[in-house]
């Protein structure tokens, strides 16, 4: 599975109709929709599709045709997201009508092609399930451990400073095994 960290957009044209596809992290979906409705006041349709992982690691997905004939826009866009194994991502396609009706098959193709176009221009990142780990280190070894954590691209979600420093990490299985081999012996990892 894959996800994106930032917004991407591409424009696709078919028989003078313009389809502007915006691919965004799911967490920014609502704010992007609001912004696009304000920016594109003359657009006819704001079709969307999204897929995200809920707290039980289940994929939740939804789509909307926003006034287009049923099943010709939102569902095809969702199918493209699913086909590319995208999660925690949303796509909004802003359509400006060009005066020529495309028919149901033409709409399915145009919406699918616009989503494929923006996905192909996006930087997709591989999704890895993260777990929480906690390590306690002495102040004297903190900088060495932080350097190691940064070099492994491990996320530090919290730091607690007491007699020692407690680091709360968001870590993948692969990062965990690398960290275990490279940490000083006196540092213990708690999962």
UniProtKB/TrEMBL annotation:
Residues 135-183 form the UPF0029 domain. One of its GO terms (cellular component) is cytoplasm. InterPro entries: EFG_III/V, Impact, Impact_N, Impact_N_sf, Impact_YigZ-like, Ribosomal_Su5_D2-typ_SF, UPF0029_Impact_C. Residues 15-118 form the Impact N-terminal domain. It comes from the Bacteria. GO terms for biological process: regulation of translational initiation. Transmembrane segments: none annotated. Belongs to the IMPACT family. This is YigZ family protein. It comes from Halarcobacter anaerophilus.
């Amino acid at each position: 599975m894959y996800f994106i960290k930032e917004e991407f957009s591409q424009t696709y044209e078919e028989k003078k109709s313009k389809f502007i596809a915006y691919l965004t992290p799911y967490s920014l979906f609502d704010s992007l929709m609001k912004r696009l409705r304000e920016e594109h006041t003359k657009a006819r349709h704001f079709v969307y599709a999204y897929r995200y992982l809920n707290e039980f690691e289940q994929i939740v997905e939804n789509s909307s045709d926003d006034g287009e004939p049923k099943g010709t826009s939102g569902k095809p866009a969702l199918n493209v997201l699913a086909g590319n194994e995208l999660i925690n991502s949303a796509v909004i396609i802003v359509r400006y009508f060009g005066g020529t009706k495309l028919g149901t098959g033409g709409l399915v193709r145009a919406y699918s092609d616009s989503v494929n176009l923006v996905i192909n221009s996006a930087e997709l990142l591989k999704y890895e399930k993260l777990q929480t780990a906690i390590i306690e280190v002495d102040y004297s070894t903190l900088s060495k451990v932080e350097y190691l954590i940064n070099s492994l691209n491990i996320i530090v979600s919290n730091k607690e400073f007491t007699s020692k420093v407690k680091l709360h990490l968001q870590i993948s299985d692969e990062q965990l095994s690398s960290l275990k081999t490279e940490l000083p012996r006196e540092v213990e990892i708690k999962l």
